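Issue 218. Parser rejects a valid record. Input:
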Amino acid sequence: MRIFPVARLLAATILAGFLLGVPVQGAVYTLKNGMQIEGMPGKIASLASDPLKPDGGQGESSPKLILFADDGIRRTFFSQYQLRSAVPSPQVNLEKVEIRQRVVKTGRRIGSIGAILRVTPFDQYGRRVFTIKAARGPIDIVQGITEITPTYTKVEGLISKESYVCETRIATSSIPGTTLSLILKRQLDMSKPGDRLRIVRLYMQAQRYQDALVELEAAITQFPGLKNLNDQVKQLRQRLADRLIQEIEFRREAGQHENVYTWLSNFPSEGVAVETLLKVRDLLKEYDDQNKQRLKVLELFEHHLSLVSDDTFKKKIRPILEEVKLELNFNTLNRMADFLRLADDPDLGSDAKLALAISGWLMGPGEGTENLVVAASLRTVRDQVREYLACEQEEERQAILKRLRAIEGSAPANVARLIAHMKPVKKTVPQESPIEGLMEFTVPGLEEDEQFKYFVQLPPGYDPYRRYRCIVTLNGAGSTARQQIDWWAGAFHAKKKIRLGQATRHGCIVIAPVWNRAYQSKYMYSAREHAAVLFSVRDACQRFSINTDRIFLTGHSMGGDAAWDIGLAHPDLWAGVIPIVARADKYVSRYWENGRQVPFYFVLGEMDGNSMAGNARDFNRYLTRQGFDTMIVEYRGRGHEHFQDEIHRMFEWIRLHERDFFPKEFKSVTMRPWDNYFWWAELDDFPQRSVVIPLEWPVARARPAETEGVIHENNRIRIRSSTSKVTVWLSPEMVDFQQRIYVTINGREMGQEVEVSLDVLLEDVRTRGDRQHPFWAKVGR
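Output the parser choked on:
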């Protein structure tokens, strides 16, 4: 029976891949940091008053060094100097559904969007009330969805009692699936197979494969003539399976092994390709093989220990085996690589193999010793080091240091490896909370009776032996540190007993310092605010296994102002900084050169007052000079918002960035006494003309103190600084301690021999909290 010939034609277009819609041609830019940006391309000279003017307001003769891509919802700006390659994007016919609404065409126009007081959810007609703060009180703007595409949704002002002309774009992915379905089904004719298939195409292009599958199966049930699309149903099931495999591999990379094993064990098989099921089997086999290796390690360890003839010595080693039994897992199994590799070596005695197991466990792969006496002493060294790092009394620390020096195996090289592979220093007891992994801590403040509070959210399956990326997030006025945790880690799902946000998915630790005072409405650029953030981060690094090369600082509104300033003031601490709706002020414009050493990702709204124009001077500096890894994202028609739409791209950017703690050279400027530490240089005794505290800002003719450091070949370190006192901290990642080291400070070569020092190493780790890059020696004048 010949039914629905139009539907069959539409089905053929789906199967052939030629989807109906509006053709879009753009470009795909690949940046040097690995980020890919797609959209309609453009090139301008400046981000002045109107970034889309052909000359950016700077005249035709100005070089156009700023590139941008417009994907319909936002414009992404970056520097010509950061471009690696550009290719035309493939032409895609995007499905676009227009929604009939009574749109305001003329009348009062919203020039800028201030503080957002309330946003109601979209109803089944695609309408909502958007309430903003204005000089004369709150304004209620009735808005309606007028266009839906797979990537963005256009929202415009509707005719109402108080009508306003406005247009904005939001990510289609930000609209709940049930709401989107209601809106589409009210607009399109569900009695027509062609309209039903339009919804399927839109969902497929948006990669909402589960929704597409539900709609396609419903369409086939309603219209039997579409049964030839059953093959497409199979393809969608396969896409869902592929997506699930990708997510499982993603979660495995994030260290969520328990969940991953459960998902693999219960992987759906209906309608899934054999190749996919084989991949699932292989992934399960990897886990099973690793578990067998774990059991083999424990069995061999027990065997070699039983062969130790000295009962006293055996008793000393037994606690190490018990520790390994408890804590050897997928994250630590690689420590036993040398032990497993040489397990069957007939030339190695039982004592040597046992020494490899012990030293591998304590110091990591590739650092083993075959001397059992030295290996056994390493546990004593580690425990003494932990005690030193946790001790608050100077006299007690000196006593521990004295004991350490008398223990075999306490050389600085061994101590550094032990510190890198041991658990965090501060023991943290899990706190009672309905949300697993959510904790609250306090740290001493600047004043004697002051304390700073901060919140931490740990990811699922947190293991103190695994290093985690970390996001430090600062709240804006009118919001809280707890809300920042929710923004990044997601709301808590009571049934699933887990947060459902992106930081949870990516396996990140989220830290939210309570950095501002109650009722504070703007950032003050003060020592107290810096301390609230930095002290919280340091304390968290001492409590949790944070990858100090992957700490990202971010903030919203005045918290974004703080992130921008603190990021520039302490560029050596961050893998990247993400200020959201931030504004440049005070020190930010004087510290701009510090931005060469730390990547920035700015997000703002096109209608957030004069935000772009106000920040243009600093943005232009970042985008028109070489050496800056900076990206600026401007959302079309949006105001002073939180921009949850951008979180997926933020994490893509986060995954691509890692701190370089030992740059071959750096230049920095500073104007505050507490902004005095840059990588391996500590500064003191600032010239009077360079010191400007926030309450005195601005000071005429004040000049920042400049510092320039270079790590040369042949163990030579050179530093020049406007400050009269400089301390150079040294690490084996900078110099070879086996050779003569030459340190020149402000043109004067320091004559003393540089020797590694156990107390320098331990004090550095204790005070900075960085267990990955401890300094072993220091030179100063």
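Fixed in the parser; the record now loads. The longest strand covers residues 137-148.
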